[in-house]
Recover the amino acids of this structure.
């Protein structure tokens, strides 16, 4: 069986399970007694184990198996969750993530055994339960469990559904015996299905076959190995049944026992597996702790394992090959349906135009315009839907942060809590991919420099536990992400001292600089005020990298701080990158586009209303003083012929800063596709790109963020 | 686009390298044909504010935005005078985006074998900075200055 085609699915699902594990472990740390959480973790570990097993990733499987074991003990209340255990589990999680990363790179899990984590897990389980679990670690979990040979009473593995449960209850009421039977055929048996049929027939005279594994249909089709299991209701006793079955020729043995219905089937399968494993251990007690062991022990490991084994040996040579997994977006099927519908409509619109062009006699302009309008509405919707497909909730990036803060908690010895909101806010996939690192950086900064130590906090009369907030929300055409802490805030004096020390500013400059300008210094390259360099942050490459990255995404970052109350970093990102609504304006004979998202209002300003504040032109607009920017001077535009009676001013904003852009003429609102003007031209940052207008002319897009 | 057709007709399969011969003022320059993607007539150029002065701006070539550089300005000659013969040669270097180069005229395609190319190190009183040259080709009676197009296009930081 070639499993490589399932690799992408495996990776996707593993990611999801790992995220569940991470989330639930966080909860577990807070509420060690939460049974739901424990069950959830157990399930996630169990699924991971099964998936890894199927794909032949044995090291991964082994690790998840041991994690699962520990939870098995917890579930059966043999042990309690302790902080050390959670730590080990988190390390296990990291190791699993490392495996996954390796698999994504090379389609191979690598050779890291993580022996230490496994040993720790086992010794914790051992300590807590007093039971010797160690032999288990020698055995990577056989999955699926059915393949284990040596466990005679296989009927225990039969899954019980809710419906079955009712039948069981009924049978019990009628005082029937419920037996589990596993029938083994002789190795030499040829007509397996026929023998099985005889067994069923014999049994039917004695009682009722409730359930079989494999299913009755599969047994009839001979889709089973040398054994099958049955759950059987009868009034007879076990011995009678056993003799009856064994009376059928070519039957090697029938194992029979009362079938216990566990209240929780999950638990059932868990214990069975354990039983299975111990049975296996008995068989080969001397099996060495090498991952190759299962090949020897279990005769009928799925072909997949053997197959991957082959692959594994081939792989090291091509390890450096490019990552095997492409970048994918999981798309809601509904979104795809909408797209599909729109494409159909597009075809209809096209057909409408075709038929109109063939019926040339009766064609009128109104018909034509109608079709054009129809086409327009379809393309607009189509664009919107395609954009939506590209949108990914920010959750996929931020979900790893609670874990990070937890680790920082321990590392820095500060108590802190992360509060997140707006995880469902959606951003373009390309932005999502890039935003993780800057956010991580800001959060680390907040944890390391932002928050005071617990003692300081108590001394200052704040609550002991520091708070870090990560809020995402949509604001017009932008998405804002705010990283906030309630720590000491940014000490402007400290920055001043540092800047003078470094010679970034002169003492004269320092005299006139505002607090905000000082804070902005933090975004300059190699400016770190951390007094000591820690492992967490403060290597001098910092906020400037964050700023560059965010500006590269077409966004901007701003910092607000209040000494003693905390600081906040606000990242503003465009919702989408490729297509925007823009206001087209004219400067001289040139056309420029101003992104609509940053425009507040458009004003007609009389020349007499323009005031001068220190050499700068400003206007007073409804109480706020707004600086004017003469675009035609800034962009060296040749002046037009006409003399306007008043100024047309486009008021734009960036955060809470405003500016008025003086333009010659307004053309109108238009949806534009942003295109890059390439790397050859080193123009100023004033131009954010270009777009092609309907008539083929090129208009430049003004970068409002750098203008204001 | 007619130009391309003409050039293709002129092409001869032979030994040596093929060059497109262009004219700037009274001088002839050769551009290795393997870098030439297209040749288009002069068209509406959108100025880019505060770009390097040898960039005329950008043009729209079938939905792509392509920067256009003036060879004259780059070589420190008189600014271009647009005529009917003015052409923009679209150059595509490997792993680089396309760029247009404005020239006074596109003349012909010539095939030069190694023997007819001289090294640029020779005592040559060319005004063009030596770094842009890859050699001088002799063709019929005239001399063709062969351009090292990569160094013309890719700006060295020290130039600014």
């Amino acid at each position: 069986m070639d499993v490589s085609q399932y690799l992408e699915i495996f990776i996707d699902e593993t990611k999801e399970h790992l995220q569940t594990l991470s989330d639930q472990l966080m909860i577990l740390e807070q509420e060690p007694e939460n049974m739901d959480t424990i069950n959830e973790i157990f399930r996630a570990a169990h699924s991971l184990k099964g998936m890894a097993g199927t794909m032949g990733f044995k090291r991964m499987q082994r690790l998840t198996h041991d994690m699962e074991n520990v939870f098995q003990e917890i579930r059966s209340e043999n042990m309690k969750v302790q902080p050390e255990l959670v730590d080990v589990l988190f390390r296990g999680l990291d190791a699993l993530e490392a495996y996954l990363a390796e698999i994504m790179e090379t389609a191979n899990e690598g050779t890291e055994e993580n022996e230490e984590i496994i040993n720790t897990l086992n010794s914790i389980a051992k300590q807590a339960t007093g039971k010797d679990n160690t032999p288990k670690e020698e055995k990577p979990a056989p999955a699926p469990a059915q393949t284990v040979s040596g466990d005679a009473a296989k009927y225990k593995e039969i899954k019980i559904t809710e419906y079955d449960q009712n039948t069981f209850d009924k049978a019990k009421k009628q005082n029937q015996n419920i037996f589990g039977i596993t029938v083994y055929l002789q190795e030499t048996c040829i007509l397996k299905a026929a023998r099985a049929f005889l067994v069923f027939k014999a049994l039917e005279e004695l009682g009722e076959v409730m359930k079989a594994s494999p299913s009755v249909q599969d047994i009839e089709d001979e889709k089973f190995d040398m054994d099958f299991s049955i759950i059987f209701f009868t009034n007879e006793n076990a011995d009678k049944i056993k003799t009856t079955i064994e009376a059928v020729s070519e039957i090697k043995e029938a194992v029979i026992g009362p079938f216990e219905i566990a209240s929780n089937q999950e638990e059932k399968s868990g214990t069975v597996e354990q039983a299975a494993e111990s049975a296996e251990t008995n068989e080969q007690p001397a099996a060495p702790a090498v991952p190759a062991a299962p090949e020897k022990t279990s005769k009928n490991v799925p072909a997949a394992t053997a197959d991957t084994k082959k692959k594994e040996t081939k792989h090291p040579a091509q390890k450096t090959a490019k990552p095997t997994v492409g970048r994918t977006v999981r798309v809601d099927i509904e979104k795809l349906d909408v797209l599909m519908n729109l494409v159909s409509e597009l075809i209809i619109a096209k057909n409408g135009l075709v038929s109109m062009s063939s019926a040339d006699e009766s064609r009128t302009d109104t018909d034509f315009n109608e079709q054009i309008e129809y086409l327009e509405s379809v393309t607009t919707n189509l664009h919107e839907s395609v954009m939506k497909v590209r949108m990914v909730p920010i959750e996929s990036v931020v979900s790893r942060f609670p874990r990070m803060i937890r680790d920082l908690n321990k590392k820095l010895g500060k108590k802190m809590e992360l509060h997140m909101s707006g995880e469902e806010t959606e951003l373009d996939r390309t932005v999502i991919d890039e935003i993780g690192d800057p956010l991580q950086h800001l959060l680390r900064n907040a944890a390391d420099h932002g928050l005071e130590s617990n003692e300081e906090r108590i001394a200052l009369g704040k609550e002991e536990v520091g708070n870090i907030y990560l809020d995402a929300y949509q604001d017009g055409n932008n998405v804002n992400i705010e990283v906030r802490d309630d720590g000491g805030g940014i000490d402007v004096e400290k920055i001043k001292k540092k800047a003078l020390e470094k010679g970034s500013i002169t003492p004269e400059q320092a005299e006139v600089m505002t607090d905000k300008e000082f804070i902005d210094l933090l975004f300059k390259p190699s400016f770190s005020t951390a007094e000591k360099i820690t492992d967490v942050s403060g290597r001098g490459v910092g906020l400037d990298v964050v700023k560059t990255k965010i500006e590269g995404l077409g966004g901007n970052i701003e910092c607000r701080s209040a000494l003693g109350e905390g600081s906040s970093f606000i990242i503003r990102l465009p919702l989408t990158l490729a297509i925007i609504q823009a206001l087209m304006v004219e400067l001289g004979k040139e056309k420029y586009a101003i992104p609509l998202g940053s425009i507040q209002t458009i004003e007609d300003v009389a020349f007499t209303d323009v005031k001068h504040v220190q050499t700068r032109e400003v206007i007073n607009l409804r109480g706020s003083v707004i600086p004017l920017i003469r675009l035609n001077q800034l962009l060296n535009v040749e002046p037009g012929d006409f003399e306007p009676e008043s100024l047309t001013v486009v008021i734009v904003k960036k955060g809470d800063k405003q500016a008025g852009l003086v333009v010659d003429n307004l053309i109108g609102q238009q949806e534009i596709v942003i295109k890059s003007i390439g790397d050859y031209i080193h123009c100023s940052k004033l131009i954010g790109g270009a777009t092609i207008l309907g008539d083929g002319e090129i208009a430049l897009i003004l970068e409002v963020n750098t203008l204001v | 686009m007619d130009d391309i057709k003409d050039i293709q007709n002129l092409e001869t399969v032979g030994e040596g390298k093929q060059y497109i011969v262009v004219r700037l003022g009274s001088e002839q320059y050769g551009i290795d044909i393997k870098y030439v993607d297209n040749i288009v007539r002069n068209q509406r150029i959108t100025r880019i504010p505060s770009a390097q002065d040898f960039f005329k701006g950008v043009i729209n070539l079938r939905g792509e935005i392509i920067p256009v550089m003036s060879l004259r300005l780059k070589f420190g000659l008189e600014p271009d005078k647009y005529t009917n013969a003015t052409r923009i040669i679209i150059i595509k270097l490997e792993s680089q985006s396309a760029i247009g180069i404005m020239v006074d005229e596109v003349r012909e395609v010539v095939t030069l074998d190694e023997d007819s190319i001289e090294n640029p190190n020779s005592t040559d009183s060319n005004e063009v900075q030596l770094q842009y040259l890859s050699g001088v080709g002799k063709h019929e009676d005239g001399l063709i200055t062969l351009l090292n197009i990569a160094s013309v296009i890719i700006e060295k930081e020290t130039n600014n």
Summary: Chain B has a mean pLDDT of 79. Residues 2-159 of chain B form a domain with the OB fold (Dihydrolipoamide Acetyltransferase, E2P) fold (CATH 2.40.50.180). The radius of gyration of chain B is 15 Å.
